[in-house]
Specification:
Elements lengths: L1 H16 L22 H30 L1 H9 L2 H11 L6 H35 L2 H6 L4 H35 L3 H11 L2 H17 L7 H14 L7 H4 L18 H5 L2 H19 L9
Helix pairs in contact: 2-5, 2-7, 4-5, 5-7, 5-8, 5-9, 5-10, 7-8, 7-9, 7-13, 9-13
């Protein structure tokens, strides 16, 4: 390994001396000469986000397939160890209603939903990156109002996030049903995934209002995401008080039922409705206030 590393360093130095400043050894493809055709602000937002969205989709779906295909073997290992099974219940919740299989599916969905939140928040923060770099000025100079420009990014973030949650629920649910040999597996995965839609709306709304009102403090939204992940993964293990546990955005999914599908109406009335209200209020405030401040570069 040391020899290979040394060889790569020598090769890198040799190649570095042979290229032009700011250029690569491989010539760039010829750039488009015709006009770029996009359907307004929404089309530009989609085009700008497609690379990041595709990358996140590949990562999330690959992990979903990997985890889903290992459910049976992982559960077999857990059942052989009482300590491991108890640890899973501490991390993910009581298994008396849906068994260890349902708890494990919910645990996997919580991890994948956290990745979806990260992806969606990142897509919203791209607007701030465009503003800081000065590229947003060109878009606004073409006549697009700021609220519409930011709103397009928010719509893309919500659309990508919702599509990823739906895909996680379907793919993991089908694999869980096959691995567990239980039709309830599809319901567990779908309800756990779709139950995080209010958390998605709240996270995107908080990111949008920070970008619109306090752009230099927009990265603080990552503190909310990190706290949400810490509570979801370690809250039960650390036996945090219920009040602290409820501050995590991902802690308000539906209670998984033995039949696979929860009572959606009963679940929605409560914390999920509050999350939706927070998200909607923040989004409305962001769209109203974003045009009342100066653009801030850097």
């Amino acid at each position: 390994m040391l020899a290979a590393g040394a060889l790569l360093v020598v090769l890198a130095r040799a190649l570095h001396r042979r290229r032009e400043l700011g250029a690569g050894l491989v010539p760039e493809r010829e750039r488009r000469r015709g006009p770029l055709r996009v359907g307004g602000v929404g089309g530009w937002a989609l085009r700008e986000a497609r690379g990041a969205a595709l990358g996140w989709a590949i990562v999330v779906l690959a992990l979903t397939g990997l985890f889903g295909s290992m459910i049976s073997s992982l559960l077999r290992t857990m059942r052989e160890s009482v300590t491991t099974a108890e640890l899973l219940e501490l991390l993910a919740g009581d298994a008396s209603e849906v068994g260890l299989g349902g708890v494990f599916v919910g645990f996997l969905v919580a991890f994948l939903a956290l990745l979806v939140l990260i992806a969606a928040v990142g897509l919203v923060l791209r607007w701030r990156g465009e503003e800081a770099s000065g590229r947003l000025v060109n878009e606004l100079a073409a006549g697009a109002p700021r609220w519409r420009s930011l709103g397009a990014r928010v719509a893309v973030a919500l659309g990508v996030g919702a599509a990823l949650l739906l895909a996680v629920g379907i793919v993991l649910g089908l694999l869980a049903r096959d691995q567990l040999d239980d039709d309830a597996g599809l319901g567990w995965a779908m309800s756990a995934a779709l139950g995080q839609l209010p958390a998605l709306v709240a996270a995107v709304g908080l990111a949008a209002v920070l970008v619109a009102v306090l752009p230099r403090l927009a990265p603080l939204i990552w503190a909310v995401v990190v706290w949400t992940g810490a509570v979801a993964w370690l809250g039960g293990l650390l036996r945090l008080p219920d009040g602290l546990m409820r501050t995590g955005l991902l802690q308000h999914g539906p209670q998984l039922a033995a039949s696979g599908w929860p009572d959606w109406g009963e679940w929605l009335v409560g914390a999920p409705l509050v999350l939706l209200g927070i998200g909607a209020t923040c989004l409305a405030a962001a769209l109203v206030l974003v045009g009342r401040r100066d653009l801030r570069l850097g």
